[in-house]
Design goal:
276 residues; mainly alpha
């Protein structure tokens, strides 16, 4: 299977995605911003459409336009504090409207299905390099801003009092989310990117470990889900995005079942000890 160049390219991209998605997802989930990732993942379709229209790399065009939308969400968040969900509706409507207009008007002559559902056949060497650059920049930025991001995640007001430049870091974080979504487009697909950002983190949180340990577990679950999705999609000739999303949900269910089984065994053991 891995003797084919397209599978090698897809595997490299999958490794990078499995690192970046849970790192960003950890902060999004804990800040209860998961729906922002969902809105931006759909907004990336406009970036893909513009890239195809201008004949530039769709990953880079998706990153640029999704970054603009991400910054717009952060700016509007201050204007709509009481109705934050309206911001997502505005951005989603605008971006999807742009994408549908460009695609339906026949301005794009490339099939966008691979971007919607993901494809292991269309990952080119150029895509690998684009994903690698965006991934390295994203991971480096997370490591550089890690203390500030943690403070903002658990106590944004306290972080401001401590001197953290919260607005600037939130803007940078929005761009990181855009980069994460962009690197995932080719393999996972636009429609299920948000699941890859949130579900491995949700799975890791079930094990109730510390922050760093949970992040490490999220990376592990993400890598397992993506690799399983790639392998199964290759053998059944299906889009990897859908298979990966199913694998992520199944893994979450397995971990929840494991957690419940352990609690049941402990409770029975505790009652048996008390009776003795």
């Amino acid at each position: 299977m891995f003797e084919y160049t397209f599978m090698q390219n897809a595997f490299i991209v999958a490794i990078l995605i499995s690192l970046v998605c849970p790192l960003i997802g950890m902060f999004l989930v804990l800040r209860r911003y998961s729906m922002i990732g969902d809105a931006l993942s759909h907004a990336s379709l406009a970036g893909v459409a513009v890239g195809l229209l201008l004949d530039v790399n769709p990953i880079l065009s998706a990153f640029c336009l999704t970054s603009v939308f991400g910054i717009a969400i952060e700016m509007l968040r201050n204007a709509f504090r009481r109705y934050a969900e309206l911001i997502l509706v505005v951005i989603l409507s605008l971006s999807v409207g742009i994408a549908i207009t460009i695609i339906s008007a026949g301005m794009v002559h490339t099939n966008v299905e691979s971007f919607l559902f993901g494809s292991i056949l269309t990952v080119s060497q150029e895509d690998v390099w684009s994903v690698a650059v965006l991934s390295v920049v994203s991971i480096s930025t997370i490591l550089l801003l890690y203390p500030q991001l943690v403070m903002l995640t658990f106590d944004e007001d306290g972080a401001r009092i401590a001197g953290v430049r919260s607005r600037l870091i939130n803007y940078i974080f929005s761009i990181l989310v855009a980069a994460t979504i962009s690197v995932s487009i080719r393999v996972v697909g636009i429609l299920v990117i948000s699941s890859l950002i949130a579900l491995p983190v949700a799975t890791a949180l079930q094990l109730q470990k510390g922050f760093r340990r949970t992040m490490e577990l999220a990376v592990f679950f993400s890598f397992f889900d993506i690799l399983l999705g790639l392998v199964i999609s290759y053998w059944v000739d299906a889009a990897p995005g859908g298979v990966t999303a199913i694998a992520s949900v199944v893994m979450l269910m397995v971990v929840i079942a494991y957690k419940e089984a352990v609690l049941t065994i402990r409770n029975k053991g505790g009652r048996g000890h008390d009776a003795a």
